[in-house]
Amino acid sequence: MAVIMLASAHGAGATVTSLAMALADTRPSLLVEADARQGSIRTGYLQGAWGGEVGLWHLAQAHLQGQLAEAFEAHLRPLDIAGNRLLLPGLTDPRQAAALSGTWEATALLLQAMDQHAGYDVLVDAGQVLVDGSALHSRLFPAPLAHSADVVLLVMRNTLTSVAQTLPVAQVLREELERSGSGQDTLRLLVIQELSSSAGGLRSDAIARRFSVPVADLLPWDPEAGALFTHGAARPPKLGKLALVKQARKTMQATQMVVNDRRRALDMPPAPVHSPVVAGMLQRLAAVRPPVSPVIPVPEGARRG
Question: Which domains, ranges and CATH numbers included, belong to the chain?
Fold first, then answer.
């Protein structure tokens, strides 16, 4: 399994890509909306399935009360009918973001446990990278989740504008990951092919050379999938037929291979779980039957709102 963070330097599609990868995964997955500007999946793709009574914000208060694991489990919601793909909905108000700064490290440990002991691929949608000076913003960006991720995917488009906006952010991320001990090789680029080469789109090898960062994969420009994952639909199409979802499944598989190679090289055993509360939560979540299909529809209840 893996812990994968996705982020972008601008509105390049980190949320749409995260959602596509979570739904396309052939293993149980957990998508965490950790964007400081507030989450959009509950009001967009899930069309108002829940209100502010559910989500990431509640973990801050629970952490202060020593009940983070209980709140974490209570605020998970299904992304598919079988419940093999879960969502931790994000903030409903950007003013809530600063209160979470003291909770990210403890949350990172729970996400690692979900990966190592409950058998989930964890995807963290960190939204736009926020920088303070020459480092990640300590209060408005979930830096501890980046430090503990197996791979950080910086989502960008193959345009000159996206390259210009993403290049300095990539440098900040490389330096941050090196300082944290994760290593610069944790960072990868995930490139959305908005323009064809004949229309001025940049090739992936040229982008990799410019950044000195490997390109993890190329994703197609898919307006139908983008509209669905951003706004939802009363009658959504079969997800497995969408070009973005098809490629996202391959992206997940390629990223999982990178994670497996890095873990073998580091030769680090899974961290033990000492808390009986956390162990119980992991046991319950691990009992979910793994999916047999790469894509399963959104829950009917969520569609109805």
Answer: 3-304 (3.40.50.300)
Between CA 261 and CA 155 the distance in angstroms is: 22
Q: Which of 213, 238, 214, 209 is nearest to 224 (CA)?
A: 238
pLDDT digits (tens, 9 = 90+) for 70-113: 999 999 999 988 788 999 999 999 898 888 999 999 999 999 99
Instruction: Tell how strand 151-157 and strand 135-136 pair up.
Output: unpaired
The predicted-structure confidence for 205-256, as pLDDT tens digits, reads as follows 999 999 999 999 999 999 999 999 999 888 878 888 999 999 999 999 999 9
Mean pLDDT of 27-55: 90
Task: List the beta strands (DSSP E) in 13-150.
Answer: 29-33, 77-78, 85-88, 121-128, 131-132, 135-136
Q: H or E segment at 305?
A: none
Interval 110-133: pLDDT, tens: 999 999 999 999 999 999 999 998
The alpha carbon dihedral of 146, 149, 151, 156 has a sign of negative
Structure tokens at 176: 């941050």
Q: How far apart are CA 287 and CA 226, in angstroms?
A: 32
Instruction: State the Cα angle at 74 between 68 and 79, rounded to 5°.
Output: 125
What are the distances in angstroms from CA 163 to CA 157, 197, 253?
Answer: 7, 15, 26
The two three-digit tokens of residue 266, written as one number = 């580091």
| DSSP-derived 3-state class of residue 58 | helix
As beta bridge partners, residue 82 has none
The structure tokens listed for 60 are: 């801050």
Total-model pTM:
0.93
**3-state SS class at 215:** strand
